[in-house]
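[step 3/7] fold_predict: job queued, chain A
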Amino acid sequence: MSLPRSYLYVPGNDIERLDKSLGRGADAIIVDLEDAIAPDKKDEARVIVKDWLTTVSTSVEIWVRINNAAGMKELDVEAIKQPAVTGIVLAKTGSIKDVEWLDKKLTGTDIEISALIESTEGVFNAQAIAKGPRITRLQIGEADLRSEIGTFTDDETTIQFARNVAIFSSAAAKINPPVAAVSTNFKDLEAFRASTIQFRKWGYFGRTCIHPAQIEIANEIFTPTADEMAIAQDIIDRLTAAGGGVGLDARGQMIDEAVAKIARRTLSFKKS
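[step 4/7] structure written:
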């Protein structure tokens, strides 16, 4: 599977940061044409990103977050339909119609779509969005969603509903696990580590970062340890030796296909 463990956001109007971002250690970058760019700088950023994409060569996945507003999204899409682009992060995805519109605009390309859900409308439409054309991953834009709901930034109870919806919608649509949201407090790396560990336990894989200091932590947490890999392989081997059905793991506990499925998923996340 080899999914990115870390996605680094980079403003699209800063050519120096764009160039440097590719050597920061992130598995993927998200070139931002949306919130990181002031309204009067969006045209300039679009030109910079288009020119940069035509010359860049890297093994790092390149995603571009586009605006989802009439008059801007059309220009964004036409500018970034380049071979170097792995996928588009569609900001403020509210319904399947947003995805279907973008899919048509991408005809003739193999560019993927990651839906960034940032509204209550999007949360309740998440299951349909996850099944949309080209959708490979969901994300929850927690800051915008909190703003709409009216919760405080330290209130985890309400926002957890949206996080869970993304997990279940992704699984139901049989797409990749969702990507964890950014943490704006980039100075508190211990808090970032703790929340990233929690996201992994919930079923997320990979995290968006707004500062290079967060990358190493995300990469570490979303890389299965040697022990985890060994346990997963042992489960597969034992169940195979048992001829399928059920077997016993190294602790003498029952294992079956459901356990094996989780083990295979762990093994699939190994970075080459």
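[step 5/7] annotate
DSSP finds twelve helices and nine strands in the chain.
Residues 53 and 84 are 6 Å apart (CA to CA).
exit 0
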